[in-house]
Specification:
Layout lengths: L13 H6 L1 H7 L5 H21 L1 E6 L4 H4 L5 E3 L1 H10 L4 E5 L2 H10 L4 E3 L15 H10 L5 E4 L4 H5 L3 E3 L4 H7 L4 E5 L2 H10 L3 E4 L12 H11 L2 E4 L5 H4 L4 E2 L2 H11 L3 E5 L2 H10 L4 E3 L13 H10 L8 H17 L6
Parallel strand pairs: 1-2, 1-3, 3-4, 5-6, 5-7, 7-8, 9-10, 9-11, 11-12
Bound molecules: 1,3-dihydroxyacetonephosphate and iron/sulfur cluster.
The site of iron/sulfur cluster has 13 residues, from loops.
């Protein structure tokens, strides 16, 4: 079979329902039964092929429940996935997330084969800035260190002093011990970090196309209409964050829910993420946001299967970029690794 062979669609079999009964019970309220019978044969085929290949599937928290719960070996936010890639024993990683996440895995595990099921899975933040933009910022602000959110290309990371994620941005900026930092590319995360530190941040104009859509009015509505606690991702606009009971990264939201155990919560973040947390916290009622990341949605069970079958689409990064970008990622990991949740 070659890379262009059409995918044989695996068929539903009664015995698969028994084999996967525990998974079905866990995600019953997230995946409608018509969809489940379509997903199940792919889940089984992927898990079988994954074993034959000795591959590890890593899935970001914004992946659909059938991927997140059905086939992933490692799940988490972008920091957790970067750490897992650095520590991974397998020679083959399938990264179910967006392109910059697969690049981070390759930078941290350069000897491994890293596949992404759809090369077009991008990110509006990563697309907002180039390596030349970073060099120009350095020319405008000589001697000021550059902190880049991991939502950037490998080429931008190569121009960066230290990376951060939303989980450790405050820690990373404070770790530099300076009073001015170039922080890119997310202006809203940057404003949030500036509000939490005494550091002056030179910001870029990038925005997450998913989180920028939330409004303070929607947040207030969720609280007043549903009596819900509001938990927001720092990529949201500042006026939305001002309404929130808790502002935190993807992993911090999970820890907050485990600690606070609210009766009802509105997660002001990506939609699949709310679904995946719903499976983890069945006693909390989730008021669901409806902003899906279109880039994350490009990853599907059939294209994960195709990636594994044909070893398609491999991430390639020039060696000199890997070398320089690795420095900025390893400096981030040295500042603070997080506990796996
Ligand atoms: P995390 O760093 O919280 O995983 O977020 C990544 C992302 O793309 C959020 O939109
Ligand atoms: Fe990028 Fe926003 Fe999608 Fe995250 S949710 S991958 S920041 S576009």
């Amino acid at each position: 079979m070659n890379a262009t062979s059409p995918l044989p669609v695996p068929t539903w079999r009664e015995e698969l329902e028994h084999e996967y009964a525990a998974l079905r019970a866990r995600i019953e309220h997230l995946v409608p039964c018509m969809e489940w019978s379509l997903h199940l044969p792919w889940i089984e085929a992927i898990n079988r092929l994954k074993q034959q290949r000795g591959a590890v599937i890593m899935a970001h928290s914004y992946q659909s429940p059938e991927i997140f719960h059905g086939v992933a070996d490692v799940t988490g936010d972008s920091l957790a996935l970067a750490q897992a890639a650095a520590d991974c024993d397998s020679d083959l990683i399938v990264l179910c997330g967006v392109h910059f996440m697969a690049e981070s895995a390759k930078i941290l595990a350069p000897d491994k084969t890293v596949l992404i099921p759809d090369l077009e899975a991008g990110c509006s933040l990563a697309a907002s800035i180039t390596a030349e933009d970073v060099r120009e910022l350095r020319r405008q602000h000589p001697g000021v260190p550059v902190v880049s959110y991991v939502n950037t290309s490998a080429a931008v990371k190569a121009e960066t002093d230290v990376c951060c994620t939303s989980a450790n941005a405050v820690q990373v900026v404070e770790s530099l011990g300076v009073d001015k930092v170039i922080f890119l590319p997310d202006q809203f995360l940057g404003k949030h970090v500036a509000s939490q530190t005494g550091v002056e941040l030179v910001l870029w104009h990038g925005r997450c196309e998913v989180h920028e859509k939330f409004t303070a009015g929607e947040a207030r509505h969720a609280r007043e209409r549903f009596d819900a606690k509001l938990v927001a991702h720092p990529e949201c606009p500042p006026e939305v964050l001002a309404e929130a009971d808790f502002v935190g990264s993807t992993s911090a939201m999970g820890r907050w829910l485990a600690k606070e155990q609210p009766k009802r919560v509105a997660l002001i973040t990506e939609c699949s993420m709310a679904d995946n947390l719903r499976a983890q916290f069945p006693r909390t009622e989730f008021i669901k946001p409806c902003n899906l990341c279109p880039h994350m949605q490009r990853i599907t069970l059939p294209n994960i299967y195709a990636a594994l079958r044909d070893l398609r689409h491999e991430i390639h990064i020039p060696a000199d970029i890997i070398e320089r970008a690795r420095g900025s990622l390893t400096r981030m990991l040295a500042v603070g690794r997080q506990e796996r949740v």
